[in-house]
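Budget justification, computational time. The allocation requested in the original proposal was used primarily to generate structure tokens for proteins on the priority list. As evidence of use, we reproduce two of the resulting records. The first is shown immediately below.
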Amino acid sequence: MMSIWSQAKDLAAKTPEERNRYVDFLRAVSILAVITGHWLIVALYYQDGSLTPGTLLRIQPDTQWLTWLFQVMPIFFIVGGYANAVSLESARRREIGYAGWLAARLNRLVTPLLALLLGWAIFAVLLYFWDVSSGVIGLASRAALIPIWFLAIYIMVVVLAPATYKAWRRWGFASFWVFVAGGVLVDALFFMADLRWAGWSNYFWVWLAVHHLGYAWRDGRMGSPARLLTYSALGLLVLVLLIFMGPYPLAMVGSPDEGLSNTAPPKITLLALAIVQFGLLLAIEKPMRRRLSGLRVWAATVLINSMIMTVYLWHLTVMVIVVSLAYLAGGVGLEFEPGSSGWWLTRPLWIGFLYAVLLPAALLLAPLERRARAPDAAVPAAARQVGGAVLICLGVALLALFGFGNAPLPYLDIAAFLMVVAGATLSGLLPGFK
């Protein structure tokens, strides 16, 4: 562990002065918030030899307000917008075209994803031959693969980033408001015309709008801290009105209200929350950047970011494995009724233990995330990469919805996994397609 920390400090000491360390800090803090939030809201209860799954948000509805703190996916997309803007500017200076830029981005995003999906595909096959029911396999794999929904949309946001950044550079906030208008229109169709299918397009409208805020941050277009706090307050007002005077549910994560969710599909409430977070976090950017000039805090940030995709993708798999072992051991640690005082008192131990298991697993798997493309590797044509990315996203979306072993159509899980493999091969991320 000390050697890993020493490496992180060495990398931190070599960081260029012009780098905005606050971007990396927000990415690291956000990922820890997501992981902690997921581990907290999962409410499992072992009683009389059986395990009852549930979520805290349904068992104790008064905890739904906590999701306003733990829903930090907007920060991911804002940080992504900033990082993609920096990356595109660098590529333009170095005269790297779209295909070369996209190849590097896909390599960083998809490589750790492939390891997770391959691991679960093998595990699902083993469970099948051990006569584990398809329902159990499906429940475990769906729980473990929840995090991959983010990549199903973010990869497409990256594919579109050169076009959306060009729109931002040309039209500024007008391009942002186009995406906002699209999200508002889709929600109107969802609630007023009962066109529920239209709501799924908000995976693009809402998240592209949030991603655009990262462009605004990069260009320094948001103004003084006072103005940023004003934007945040206005966003909070809109969010409160939408929820308490509109048709939107309180929870910003999951679907505790039957048939209605702020996230699946996304609603404009997430955009309002993004503005609240954006204004607050950017208002304190200057003092935070001064704080991050110290080596210790910045080294910790570097360490987390060096394995950020790995810890995000694997944290629920770790939880599934721990829960499975606890069940086989007679429910040890799972005997507290969710929502009880004993359950709450043991949450710090529960979360701390899961982090203790996740950390060594992440250190083992993180080199895949840091593996860069070979300098002399051929760059596939842009059309091939885009086609491959679409296949990857379709397969990932299906696996996030249904997992392995219990899909609604025969062999849909196998087809989804093969879509990801075919897409990765087509994009040049796996050998075999010249």
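The second record produced under the same allocation is shown here.
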Amino acid sequence: MTERSYLEQIPAAAISDTCRDAVSVIINNSGDNSIIGNLESLCPQRSYKVYYTEPGIGQLNEVLEMCSQSRIPALTICGKDCNEILDSNIPAGSFVTLISPGSGWEDNTLERLLDKGNICEFSHIAWQNYFYNPDLLDRTRAKSFEELRLGLIRKDLTLTEPPIRSSHYIFLDLNSVRVCDYPGNIRKTPNGLYADEICQVARYIGMGQNLKAVFIYGFPSESKPDSVSTELAAEILWHISEALSSNISEDPSLPGNEDSFLKKIVSMGKEGQDIVFINSSLTGRWWMQIPEVKTSDNLFIACSYTDYLTACNGEIPLRWLFFFQKFNNK
């Protein structure tokens, strides 16, 4: 039986419009090529192409720009940190998601993202109280940004899917995975996401509707091809690419595709606001309609099935309330 090959290694300069047959480009900017063997050993479950490249010194932004022009999601392994990315500009109006345990410990990604004034929406996923500088948490909440604590998503991992679905750029700190599942964890912390949870989150990333780039950092230098840390990093990239290969683009706000969506109206009582949910009959995704009082327009916000069940139980979903207040207090 012939094994399927999904990975093709190419020079950075070869990324152009001719690469549009690929579902993603893996850019290894860590300076360590040990992961390529792990990636090649993973089996694709359908026919698709992923390109792998290692840019030279100072070439990363150029390669990312080529991916952007070719409309190919860039999956970048940044090594210990992602400072080179943070030094460049994230386009205005972007929705950014950070998956990390918090702030500090030689990682200033959260603070630098909060300092960028051109980010439209921001969500922080899998943070832990004891790793989060209270001042930075206050800044996150003052800007009406979303934050999903590890303890909350441990009860229901699907809560991470809606913000990830809407994100353009995702920063994923491998140190958000507990040390027994990811020995390369620089914090050596016993708590964090499990290996299977980060892989499910990776699948949500690949199913995103606006994804442009993922930046994976916290990857140890001089890692070994047969190490648990390198294998997990490779599996994360595999899950993203697998999801990209089967992703379906959906937008319930577009006219003419009403047959693909089911509308479910939940009454919150005589004094309450009816909440309209939209459910895709094709993928099972959920959205909420958020009324904008001043314009009488309805905004479609990604949500989870849990939000629908919460409304059916007579409670206003926190995500609905969060966006209703945000959009109507501008």
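A brief technical remark on that second record: The mean pLDDT is 89.
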